């Protein structure tokens, strides 16, 4: 659906975060006379009133009847369409769409630049940013946008469109691409692990929604990870499928990057923390080849890539202890990958956060042989994690403690290391309840460690360059 098709319809916005504000500005720019209702909280309603837009009405009460009064509701990504009130309104004819769907519909009509979409439970932000970095290194004007921190609708009308759009998509947004009717030029699927089960209502729905970028959006070329059993098993008859992590394509042999049987470079010194991130370089190079470009000469430019904040980010060392901020880690699998990066160091892991019902038993089993020096549990699911780990800690001999909050957790982690090692914040759970988001959690971690939160938070390369 294009924005012009909303003219004359009853339209509401649901959510007033950055995505919601971007949707409002885009609709108002194209349809200045369209009445709009915004579903938001009380504080946001005050902000809306200050805009002075007589055609924008804030409503702080959201239920099925209120939503069903509209033909179309433009929903922010964080709001699940599986909520009872949304399902009930949809059954009565209300159509729910996201800002990503609006952008893709507009872009398909305008045709300015080729789209490369990246999704996956882990690694999608770094992969998308690295893709943009290498394309720019090759002299191609490229946009970096999407879930990584810049809503696509903020780049709806640009005077000098890029040649390529590197777009990160969360599982909240992949369906928007399919619903827009547009087909990405290239879609990359890295991996799928249990995540966001509360939003999707279960693991099966999460997997289906995540992979709609390939199954329903029908990209011209689908780039898939041959080492992920779920992704590699997909039947995609409408797409040209290219695989990475296969001997004939881009893959790693130890730390060496290969294209087929040709060794291209040693990845050990690249600023890509963790072997999984160096493996995602293979995804990036496969996507670049899918665009018809020569990827091999661009691979070396990964050496000048700036790692993203809150993702295995070493923020500094004090009194013999290094502090690593992996606040974006929201699954136990991500915490395991983080621990693997520091297997040769003494580590105190801070784990726990919002409880979404994800099973930590595999993580606990792994701790029998892969445990760090200490684990400090914290947050809503901290007691559950602690209970799983308690018998294993006694057998494996690692320190296991519980903390009231992040400040208490950091104190306990430092004490456990006794002046040497790594304090690793890789919580394996969202920040909801204690923090607004993973960024706020990471910034607090930096401040508690004695570092400037502002200095560690900027995402390099956002926008068009």
Strand content: 15-25%
Query: What is the CATH architecture descriptor of the largest domain?
Result: 3-Layer(aba) Sandwich
Unreliable stretches (pLDDT < 50, length at least 5) are: none
User: Domains counted in the coordinates: how many?
Assistant: 3
What does this structure look like?
The structure is a single chain. With 465 residues, the protein is of the alpha/beta class. It folds into 3 domains: 9-93, 3-Layer(aba) Sandwich (Rossmann fold); 101-306, UDP-N-acetylmuramoyl-L-alanine:D-glutamate ligase; 313-456, Mur ligase, C-terminal domain (Protein-Tyrosine Phosphatase, Chain A). The chain has 18 helices and 21 strands. It has helices spanning 18-30, 42-49, 64-68, 84-91, 99-110, 124-137, 174-180, 197-200, 203-210, 212-215, 229-232, 275-290, 296-299, 332-341, 361-370, 382-396, 406-417, 438-448, and strands at residues 11-14, 36-39, 56-59, 72-75, 95-98, 114-119, 142-146, 164-168, 186-189, 221-225, 240-244, 250-253, 256-259, 262-266, 313-318, 321-325, 347-351, 374-377, 399-402, 421-425, 463-464. Strands 11-10-9-6-8-7-21 form a 7-stranded mixed β-sheet. Strands 15-16-20-17-18-19 form a 6-stranded mixed β-sheet, sandwiched between helices. Helix 5 crosses helix 7, helix 6 packs across helix 12 and helix 15 (361-370) runs parallel beside helix 16. It is globular, with a radius of gyration of 23 Å. The two termini are 28 Å apart.
